[in-house]
Amino acid sequence: MKRLSVSALLLSGAVAVGATACEREPRPADPMAQPSATDTAREAGRDAGNAVRGAAETIDVKAALTMDQAVDASDINVDTNGTAKVVTLKGSVATADERARAEEIAMREAPGYRIDNQLVLRAR
Q1: Are 110 and 58 in contact (CB under 8 A)?
Q2: How far apart are CA 22 and CA 41, in angstroms?
């Protein structure tokens, strides 16, 4: 339930930002013209929406890693680039099985995102 509330809050913020960046009618493109304030606002809204979605994916992945009994997530950092749709796992784990399991969890929790697994094995 808490996960849904955080995701809903982040999504509502993206909708609010995106709604303020809408334009009624598109204008013909002039290659020499500077971007209009509306275009700039639309781009900012798009970027904010991507950032919010990326933050939601980070929260979802980190929460799932923390809840999983087979993974010690205490030294795993999760970063998400919402624009590029990439989730990066950094840090260290004790075994190759933990590394593989962390990647599986990230893939499950962030569908449509590429997983960049940079986890390393801790020295014994």
Answers
A1: no
A2: 8
In this prediction, residue 20 carries a pLDDT of 45
Write down the pTM of the prediction. 0.63
Note every long-range contact of 82-86, with CB atoms under 8 Å and residues 24 or more positions apart, other chains counting: 82/49, 82/50, 82/51, 82/52, 82/53, 82/54, 82/55, 82/57, 83/47, 83/50, 83/54, 84/114, 85/112, 85/113, 85/114, 86/113, 86/114, 86/115, 86/116
Tokens of 53: 């979605």
Structural contact between residues 44 and 21, judged by C-beta atoms closer than 8 angstroms: yes
pLDDT of residue 71: 96
| CA-closest candidate to residue 53, choices 112, 108, 1 | 112
Would you state the structure tokens that stand for residue 88, as one six-digit string? 């990066």
| Number of C-beta neighbours around residue 44 at 10 A | 14
Task: For 13-28, write each residue's pLDDT tens digit.
Answer: 555 444 444 445 556 6
- How far, in whole angstroms, is CA 64 from its chain's centroid? 14
